[in-house]
Amino acid sequence: MLGDVTFVPLVGVTVGFAVTCWLSLKQPHLFEDVATEVGYQFYAERLHILPLKVINHAMPFNTLICYVYSILGLYWLIHSVVALRRESVGSEWKTVGVVYVFSFSLMSLLYGPVHLMRIVTQTHQWAVLDQWFTLPFFGLVGHFLATQQLSPNRIPSQSSLLLAILLSHLSYLLSLLHPLGFEFVLAIHIFLCVSLGIPYFIHSSVQSRVLIAKATLSCLGFVVLKLLDLYLADVHLMFEILSGHFLSKVCDVLQIYYLLLILEGHFFGSELSSDAQRTPTLSYVGRGNCVKCGRSRKWFCYFCLQWVDTFDGKQLAPKVHLPFDIHILKHNIEVSGKSTAIHAAMLVYSGCSFYTYPDIPDYSHLSHSNSFVILYPSPSALSTSNFISQTSFDRNDSSSESRCDSFHDFCNASSLETLVILDGTWSQIHSFLEDSRIKNSSIKFVKLQPYRTNFWRPQGKMPESCLATIEALFYFMRELQTEYVKYYPDNEDSREISFLHKFDDLLFFYDFMLTSVVGKSSGN
Q1: Dist CA 174 CA 387 (whole Å)
Q2: Distance CA 296, CA 355 (A)
Q3: How would you classify the pairing of strands 418-423 and 352-356?
């Protein structure tokens, strides 16, 4: 899989970089008429020597920032590879996400030495290469935004990304037609990114909007401060040290950093993520009274499972449609106000039954089948993958009755009708397991892969792999989706970019509470 990820960066960036280097440095006569600013008279920085030999140069700060480009690119290259190896869901969607991050990071890594040589040598050849290699940054961003506008529910193809990078490289040849050709081409790139970015901004989550705003301000600073470099030096002596050109490059680095965060959030931002566009609504809702018992509560009554009168849950809270029923068995000692199982009861559209121990269903009469499953890591528990493998799916024959054309069909074919979730502390769960209505049944157990909980309440000496109830339900749905994609990668819903986020709204309340309590979103 890693080989697929590195294909576009190596071809689109490395080969493009090699060709532009060869043309700029080995065939300089081709670009003699291109307008560039060569010479220290075009820069305001006048500080001559700093104690660090690595930046012992006429413009030390403008030299220093070149290293920052490469350090930032190297960090994100390593980060993207590590993130890919860590991902439990090897979907094409995430593969393309790594391609974007990898390409952008590689360009930042390569741009650092190019700009360094332009600053140090002050030669026309390196100035041309510096201009040339600026354009693919905006080309990659433009491609990402364009795909979101034209086909938001489809996975962007790596070949189209390669084409976008190569077209950005080729567009620099327009600079041969006019002295201001580069400025014109750069302006077109920036205009396309901004115009395509506005609709993306409107439909993004609040967190993404903040990052987009920061990236836009950084881009504005990059352009304006560079243009005002010499004028700022006349305003104050400080700008002969920390010059406008240097500050514009700082903004450029920040622009790259924020764009990488946006790409990461878009493709990877929700191993645990709720509907971030609606959760801010929760912060403006005060306490209200339960419409049934009249108790004062926040958003909903955890005893009556009803919305309070100050929160229109039917309109403001999402409704999650699960392909099977769920039974939530809550221990009677478990404090209802602390239980995240209540979230499922309030958010699942239908088929969610809530029981408080000892008043639970009798499962002892059930036959040994897949229709009822308990989500708990007992010694005999099957992994989700092994549970699914017990069903015979026909992956290839489109006419076969055993083939599944949708995720809903896939769940139905597994014979899973009801998922039983045990809600309580890990020590309380033993009461359920020793109860004859479960102990004497032939009901199967299913366990999850190991995940680290984001739950903010202390769990004593329990390991971080002990999940909150709503986390466990979320991850079970995610693992089912993973199995479906593995069996039917070419199905229409498998290829939709929103597919793996289909059940994110299960964490609607959980994510907001986590953000409020510990100051971070579970999506991070």
Answers
A1: 59
A2: 23
A3: unpaired
